[in-house]
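Contributing new complexes? Match this layout with S-adenosylmethionine.
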Amino acid sequence: MSRPPAPALPPLREVIARHGLTAAKALGQNFLFDEQLLDRIAAIPGKLEGKPVLEVGPGPGGLTRALLRAGALVTAIEMDRRCLPALAELGEAFPGRLRVIEGDALKIDPATLFAEPYAIVANLPYNVGTALFTGWLSGESWPPAWSSLTLMFQHEVAQRITSAPGTSAYGRLAVLAQWRSEARLAMKVHRSAFTPPPKVMSAIVHLVPAAMPEGVSARMLERVTEAAFGQRRKMLRQSLKGLPGALEALATLAIEPERRAETLSVAEFVAIARVLSG
Ligand code: SAM
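Output block (do not edit by hand):
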């Protein structure tokens, strides 16, 4: 059965003016108004018709309306209560398709909100986005409760997440994002697309869970990358020497201890963590 046509909605700028939603710097509010751009962002996770989506930080609802237009069943967590009336209006335009939860996303376990896998989509302030991202990727149990992540970051952070070995951007975030997921930089977003424009460019990262390598503890991998990249200019024999068994693991795996962290592939980090997890 085909979906009814999307309802006509007032322009976002009008919604913001009517509800007095001046962007609050303390909440990292930079709003997107370009509906075509928002529709392109909502298309990144793939077909959303009838699918559950968690949106974190909907603000006045620009991305939310694009997700609803794409047919998603949206649950949105927003901590700025000034935005709730605008979101309630949007909910009325898409009956039964938008659930809004007022609260701090850092304090809510989204898995408790859904009975089936859900896509996560968010345009968040940098510090909140990175904290949520690392939390969503750090659990021992895999696959996670979510089916994909589509997240706006500062361009430089998006590069760190998707970078390859041998580059200056490669580090803990890349290993965390890539060892059991496929991560790609899906779209660059110019700073002028936001109101007010932030100082730096942004980009959207899209990530889907992949198979988890066997016999590796996520916590151990985190300890290895923390030690290795904590002193990224040092040779591994120096940076890993405080981690019990790590130098023996390098010998077992024939990884030269003179190498530096940024030359190791994600698979090599996983192999070291596997030996240490055993
Ligand atoms: N999604 C809207 C857009 O794209 O135009 C707003 C994006 S704005 C960059 C970030 C939003 O996240 C704001 O509405 C802000 O109030 C909200 N926010 C910030 N920290 C949050 C948190 N810890 N939990 C939930 N929402 C948060």
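Reviewers usually confirm one structural detail per submission. For this one: Residues 126-138 form the longest helix (13 residues).
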